[in-house]
């Protein structure tokens, strides 16, 4: 097969980790007889510097024309974390999600047997954890009307959901549950919020279409607790944008391998794959960043965007092999030899 | 001194644990020469059963007239967790908070050395944890306009904050920080939400009034992570209603002693003290519920409502003694002798 993949390296360590994912993807393509054409485009601080805008139209066009988007990381300190900055990278992120229609953020949290002792949680709490969040990504309070009144003294943010928005996300949840252990948890705050009541009643009405799936409904505060207590009691979880933001980040650290966690953001037309970690500006150019989350995001890309599970499995296998053989960057080397970002990528590509 | 204390036992195990807190409070009062008059009133399922309303006016009057409110727990299964039930106990909770003006929910999370191995987190992560959340409790998305349009197909919830609401909560945060390690963390989502930007700019403007306090600003998703990674890196945290709901529950389980965690909800006129655990209907009447969280809530009451730190310290001391000597209910007895709810209360009262 032939693919065009939009390559959004971003800023910080983005370009370095993306390079390794490209190498590994090319090696997989070669092995299985595919041909990838990479289409680089600017985002984040790199795009702000070049054209004053974190998600320029030119980049959007590259993404729309591509079969998938592989994304590095954005968030340079000169623009990041400062809500009063005139242009902020996260505005680009939100715009990108909205314009590409990436309504479902797929975030697996799992453990690597060899890394289990890195978890802040005790072994018996974390062992066997293998859960997936589907976070709604283009609705809710992120995108509702927001502003000030009373001369700036009052601020408001509207959270809005339509039944159709809930249905398309929930459908993905049910379908994913059918391919796994057929357990689905709908996370809401239906005891307080009207949007949550819409979520709950919509999911309840869909249950009869998937009689094999066991659905539970839990309040977001209860899930925030149970994720720490018994993360391995969850399988597929669906939730709205803001709850998903908080809970997926919480979930990402329980496995102790946050630097290894991949993600996908998918819609009807477009699909984007990215590591969940940030752009670690301090590490830029030092050849120390861990490329594995980006490489595993490429695995998700083969599986989800191209429906090529064997290619995905080949990547996962070589990553496991690298971990087992200690071909790792300094964040995981624990006194042993630390390999460079590039060297880990080379090793993976050579061992596919 | 003489106090009138409104006694809202609630339902489930509420009445049993409240009885022990009453006993211990009376013992403390006797020892220090105070006189407490208890004013019982109905809430929750008990009130719905009696008068069809979870927070009746008659109860409100008792609370307003009292010097403090001691609250057990509510949430009977016949009304709880069912968003479509016509009357729900949590409506009573929200009404009570609003009518009593309890705008600040104070939730400490700390460890008991003897219970540290109950934490799901590894010892080195949790050791030394002693943090306090101040959660805004009468504003935000809980109380903004909510409803449906488009014939029920679209749901909305408005999140609204005024600068004055942020100021009064933040003021309590700065003041609390001044009595502790002078570190304050403002938790928001200022990269996305306008209400969060109002929170952040308001707190920033207050910094100069408290030059000794070091203020940090963190996004809610980052805090959800760090609470699991290094809970002992936090001291005082302030945040809005919904973020506080999620994060305080997350924080409550990291110490492994959720059943021991007290809380206070305070306003300008009224103060209410309650355990953070629920009403465990399954345990009702079995004399097995752990009364310590309610007893420690009474300690907070002496300290915060009556400004009697010695009395509070006396309660904390006897609780520590009970834990050390194994005078505990079955949730903590670990194969040793399990005492009944009442027996623990009797022991505490006798040993004050
Ligand atoms: C940067 C921010 C806008 C973003 C979000 O909240 O969605 C990030 O936290 C994420 O989860 O991708
Ligand atoms: C029952 C519910 C409305 C309540 C809340 O969300 O405030 C509870 O979770 C709490 O934290 O006291």
UniProtKB/TrEMBL annotation, chains A, B:
SUPFAM superfamilies reported in the protein's UniProt record: Isocitrate/Isopropylmalate dehydrogenase-like
Record-marked site positions (Important for catalysis): 142, 189
Catalytic activity: (2R,3S)-3-isopropylmalate + NAD(+) = 4-methyl-2-oxopentanoate + CO2 + NADH
Cofactor binding, note field: Binds 1 Mg(2+) or Mn(2+) ion per subunit.
Molecular function GO labels: 3-isopropylmalate dehydrogenase activity; magnesium ion binding; NAD binding
EC number: 1.1.1.85
Keywords: Amino-acid biosynthesis, Branched-chain amino acid biosynthesis, Cytoplasm, Leucine biosynthesis, Magnesium, Manganese, Metal-binding, NAD, Oxidoreductase
Residues annotated as domain Isopropylmalate dehydrogenase-like: 4-348
Requisite cofactors: Mn(2+); Mg(2+)
GO terms, biological process: L-leucine biosynthetic process
Database matches in SMART domains: Iso_dh
Localization per Swiss-Prot or TrEMBL: Cytoplasm
GO CC term (a single one): cytosol
Primary location recorded for the protein, binned into one broad class: cytoplasm
Function: Catalyzes the oxidation of 3-carboxy-2-hydroxy-4-methylpentanoate (3-isopropylmalate) to 3-carboxy-4-methyl-2-oxopentanoate. The product decarboxylates to 4-methyl-2 oxopentanoate.
Family: Belongs to the isocitrate and isopropylmalate dehydrogenases family. LeuB type 1 subfamily.
Record PANTHER family: 3-ISOPROPYLMALATE DEHYDROGENASE (PTHR42979:SF1)
Name of the protein described by the UniProt record: 3-isopropylmalate dehydrogenase
Organism: Mariniflexile litorale
């Amino acid at each position: 097969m032939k693919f065009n993949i939009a390559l959004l390296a971003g800023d910080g360590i983005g370009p370095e980790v993306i390079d390794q994912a490209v190498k590994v993807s090319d090696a997989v393509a070669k092995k299985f007889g595919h041909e990838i054409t990479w289409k680089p485009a600017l985002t984040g601080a790199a795009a702000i510097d070049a054209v004053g805008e974190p998600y320029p139209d030119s980049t959007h066009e590259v993404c729309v024309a591509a079969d998938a988007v592989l994304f590095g990381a954005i968030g340079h300190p000169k623009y990041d974390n400062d809500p009063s900055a005139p242009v902020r990278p996260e505005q680009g992120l939100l715009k990108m999600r909205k314009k590409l229609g990436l309504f479902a953020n797929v975030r697996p949290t799992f453990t690597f047997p060899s890394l289990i002792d890195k978890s802040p949680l005790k072994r018996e709490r974390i062992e066997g954890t293998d859960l997936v969040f589907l976070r709604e990504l283009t609705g809710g309070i992120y995108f509702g009307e927001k502003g000030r009144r009373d001369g700036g003294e009052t601020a408001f943010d509207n959270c809005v959901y339509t039944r159709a928005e809930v249905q398309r996300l929930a459908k993905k949840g049910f379908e994913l549950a059918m391919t796994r252990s057929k357990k689905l948890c709908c996370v809401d705050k239906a005891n307080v919020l009207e949007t949550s009541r819409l979520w709950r009643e919509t999911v309840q009405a869909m249950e009869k279409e998937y009689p094999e799936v066991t659905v539970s409904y839990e309040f977001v505060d209860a899930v925030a607790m149970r994720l720490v207590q018994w993360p391995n009691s969850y399988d597929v979880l669906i939730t709205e944008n803001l709850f998903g933001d908080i809970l997926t980040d919480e979930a990402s650290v329980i496995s102790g391998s946050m630097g290894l966690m991949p993600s996908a953001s998918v819609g009807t037309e477009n699909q984007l794959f990215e590591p969940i970690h940030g752009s670690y500006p301090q590490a830029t150019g030092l050849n120390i960043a861990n490329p594995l989350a980006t490489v595993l995001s490429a695995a998700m890309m083969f599986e989800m965007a191209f429906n090529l599970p064997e290619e995905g499995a080949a990547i996962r296998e070589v990553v496991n092999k690298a971990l087992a053989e200690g071909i790792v960057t300094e964040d995981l080397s624990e006194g042993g030899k630390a390999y460079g970002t590039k060297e880990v990528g080379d090793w993976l590509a050579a061992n596919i």
